[in-house]
């Protein structure tokens, strides 16, 4: 009887031991499955991130925002045409129209600048695509011609606003902002542009916004274009708010248009 009990007890121990031995691998395998699932999810997340980073690395935005001269864009010298007629003041008021053909030559513009005996900021403006005053004025003629704005108006406004490219106001030469766009006073520096051509193009487009209601011929780079009351200043004399019939315009200062007219008269040796 005792032997039978011992035998039963021995068998029970064997069965229990076997169950524990068999069960242990099952528990271990269960944990392994969970670990594999977690690793799989983790790997999918990592691969997704890696793919995104790779796509980002492939995209080259180094030249984004840069404005370059279109191949079709030229700087014509209208004054070389023997049949050329200066119609800049051919209107009822005898005012100087902003829109129209350029009525001066590149040589006249550069000559007026050089007569000021100021140093052209070639280092900074050269980085922006205009190493010399000839380069600068050529870009003005090209961009003005592209939108049908008179190049001499763009030139004289840039000279008036920047003090013949010497600056000294709220904006600086490194901004390539040649017309005080966005300089609302109180030390506000205004808008910055990636290069000389972009800054001049923005100025031309802003003048066009004031002068007429025609669509732009090139992509808009003037971030303040939609802030303008269209066709409110078709004449140079009306660019100043105090002289504008509607009280709107480019500048708040008195006699803004008159100052531009004096520079234009000097440019044309009138």
Summarize this, please?
The protein is mainly α and 270 residues long.
Main features:
270 residues; mainly alpha; 2 domains; globular
Textual characterization of the structure:
The chain has 270 residues and is an all-alpha fold. It has two domains: 1-44; 78-267, no CATH class. The chain contains seven helices and no strands. The longest helix is centred in the first third of the chain and has 57 residues, at 2-58. The protein starts with a helix and ends with a helix.
Q: In sequence order, what are the helices and strands, one letter per element?
A: HHHHHHH
Number of distinct beta strands: 0
- Count of individual helical segments: 7
Structural class: mainly alpha
What is the total number of structural domains? 2
**What portion of residues belong to β-strands?**
under 5%
- Percent of residues in helical segments? 40-55%
Mean pLDDT comes to 80
Largest sheet: number of strands, sense, barrel closure = none
Question: What distance lies between the first and last C-alpha atoms, to the nearest angstrom?
Answer: 140 Å
Write the layout of secondary structure elements.
Layout: H1 2-58, H2 106-114, H3 122-127, H4 133-147, H5 151-162, H6 196-211, H7 256-267
Helix pairs in contact: 2-4, 4-5, 4-6, 5-7
